[in-house]
Amino acid sequence: MLTWVIYDITDNKIRAKVAKACKGYGLYRVQKSAFLGNLNRNEIDELSIQCQDIMDEGVDSVYIFPMCDEDFKKVKLLGQAFDKRLVSDEVIAKFF
């Protein structure tokens, strides 16, 4: 299932750990604090737990949005597209 992970984390070390966790699940960075890729339900749960353990829940936020293909097709991309070196062709193809 296509999944967005978007976060707002104040501490550089914590932010880097969350980014590393996202990359570890095969997600692609599409913005400085946004990742996108395919995760199954178990992976979503595991990543949620891992981020929760890393972050400071008093000041940080992590949003994980699973999307079905039908809803993903409704996403509007305005402005600059993804950096094709960072995002797989499979993800890019779903936008165009």
Write structural notes for this entry.
This protein is of the alpha+beta class and 96 residues long. The chain has one domain: Alpha-Beta Plaits, CATH 3.30.70.240. 40% of the residues lie in helices and 24% in strands. The chain has 4 helices and 4 strands; from the N terminus they run βαββαβαα. Strands 2-3-1-4 form a 4-stranded antiparallel sheet. Helix 1 (12-24) packs antiparallel against helix 2. It is globular. The two termini are 18 Å apart.
Q: What descriptive keywords fit this protein?
A:
about 100 residues; alpha+beta; four-stranded antiparallel beta sheet; about 40% helix; about 25% strand
Question: Quick summary of this structure?
Answer:
The protein has 96 residues and is α+β, with helices and mostly antiparallel strands. The protein contains four helices and four strands; from the N terminus they run βαββαβαα. It has a single domain (2-95), classed as Alpha-Beta Plaits, CATH 3.30.70.
Total strand segments: 4
* Sheet with the most strands, sense and barrel status: 4 strands, antiparallel
Number of domains: 1
Order of helices and strands: EHEEHEHH
Strand order of the largest sheet: 2-3-1-4
Q: What's the oligomerization state? A: single chain
> What would the average pLDDT be, to the nearest integer?
87
Shape: globular
Radius of gyration: 13 Å
Secondary-structure content class: alpha+beta
Architecture, according to CATH?
2-Layer Sandwich
Instruction: Quickly name the level 1 CATH class.
Output: Alpha Beta
Quote the distance from N terminus to C terminus.
18 Å
Uncertain segments: none
Question: How many helices in DSSP terms?
Answer: 4
